Input
Amino acid sequence: MKPIQVGLLGIGTVGSGTFNVLTRNQEEIRRRAGRGIEITMVADLNVERAREIVGDRARVVADAREIIANPEIDIVIELIGGYGIARALVLEAINAGKHVVTANKALLAVHGTEIFAAASAKGVMVAFEAAVAGGIPIIKALREGLTANQVQWVAGIINGTTNFILSEMRDKGLDFDVVLKEAQRLGYAEADPTFDIEGVDAAHKATLMSALAFGIPVQFDKAHVEGITKLAAADIRYAEQLGYRIKLLGIAKRRDDVGGIELRVHPTLVPAKRLIANVEGAMNAVMVQGDAVGTTLYYGKGAGSEPTASAVIADLVDITRLHTADPDHRVPHLAFQADELRDTPVLSIDQVRTAFYLRLRVADQKGVLSSITSILAASDISIDAVLQRESNEGEHQTDVIILTHETQEGAMRAALAQMQALPTVLAPIVSLRKEELA
Output
């Protein structure tokens, strides 16, 4: 049987890994897919570099549209990234009747509704396992493996850069700015790390997981996004003393009590005994809670040339197996049938319910703790634990750490404003959310 012919758009880190793994494991992949899969064309602006990678095993061109226009190409892999030219090329490939594999989480989180609709209209597939958590097959788990379940929540460490930084801050007691510079030196962080450290990259991925988990359209603009730039080493230390670790989590949660979905990314205290709290360095992990299966955990490398290539090639195999099938019998792009997606609203952050960690820098005098706890009690916010550090010799101020039970975000914000106005509160209050994940 004639091999499936693939065109590769972009042969950078992931593209070169995809080409090399597909070549190296060609026979094993053929045995799984039922026929050969070959990258026969590569498009990259750096033609010379591309030729050094592929040699004479594929034709190299500078113009990606030559691949799209080639009637021999069955599948187009988009590894260019970004929202601009990538969106145009993906839509053109779909319009030309070609299946698409992409690792572009930003593109799908922002324009996924348009792209999936175009693919359905043309009867082609858009596969994106590599767009979330690199080599971890979380998309397949949500689309297929957990299909019997009503998913209750998904929570994931889905950005390796921020997890590396938080791990180093905890291990070495260093502040964020110091560790960021070290992460950049070691290659774990980009020269411009904004998308990572401000939580945007994780929010793109959480948006896709929320759509797969709950059968809703992709709605990146509704996600609440906070990064790790304001985290202090002191808070990581205090969290550790209380039995927690701080992780940047992407969280999507079903809220049947109000008929909505929570979609949020932010630093989160997690009990140290949870497996996900012990995911260190640049590794990724995703937890999924289903009503039938309970809690499942998916762990592995969330980035890198060959780990991400593993996911790209898995998509190639899936498409190869299914491309001749009736489109109505394929696995839907977002796990649910296209006409069964629901308009369940994504809740505003004020409607979110979670527990909190609070750090208050206060004057070391009588009555301070009483005034703080009175405000919380009046707001119907119950306290789980309190940690008060003794002031150093000659100091007249100290830190008070409070863990609360679950409450509504809006109520906590109002209480924080009242506490901040107290004359005995001497610095901006640090407020972090806490999740038990059980």
